[in-house]
Design brief:
Elements (H helix, E strand, L loop, with lengths): L1 E4 L5 H10 L21 E8 L5 E10 L2 E8 L8 H15 L4 E7 L3 H9 L3 E5 L3 E7 L3
Antiparallel strand pairs: 1-2, 2-3, 3-4, 5-7, 6-7
Length: 141
């Protein structure tokens, strides 16, 4: 998978990913309430392309006030192939390069593969309710 950084000039590729998300959209609801143009405000937005150039994985670091939120989604039919791990590595590297000290995320409690990925990459649980868990990662010094 080739990971590319995108901005609003690549909104067509992002729209293509959103259209292909499939069942993965049930746990990645970011674009349910935001237009693709939200990438203008991101620290970084990345797309993972398969060998045919089709976007099959998405990731962002989104600054909201003083908090940077991480989001990752792998399109239906492309999970279980290490794509989420590759995207996570790229996002954390981009965050480090941008000087981001702390990253937070939320994840559905039934998304066990996502939780394993986040914990493997240094995220620690900070709060859990019946449906969602919140995690935080502080950049190593």
């Amino acid at each position: 998978m080739k990971i590319i950084k995108i901005d609003e000039s690549a909104l067509g590729l992002l729209r293509q990913f959103i259209a292909l998300i499939g069942a993965s959209g049930s746990s990645f609801r970011y674009f349910n309430s935001r237009p693709p143009e939200v990438v203008r405000n991101h620290v970084v937005t990345l797309l993972g392309l398969d060998d045919a150039g089709t976007p099959v994985c998405y990731g962002h670091l989104d600054r909201e006030a003083d908090t940077v939120w991480l989001g990752i989604c792998v399109a239906e039919g492309h999970t279980g192939q290490g794509r989420g791990g590759k995207m996570m590595t790229a996002l954390l590297e981009a965050g480090d390069q941008a000087g981001v000290k702390e990253i937070k995320l939320s994840v559905d409690n039934n998304n066990l593969s996502g939780i394993r990925l986040y914990e493997k990459n240094g995220f620690s649980l900070i709060f859990r309710n019946d449906k969602i868990s919140f995690y935080r990662r502080t950049r190593p010094v």
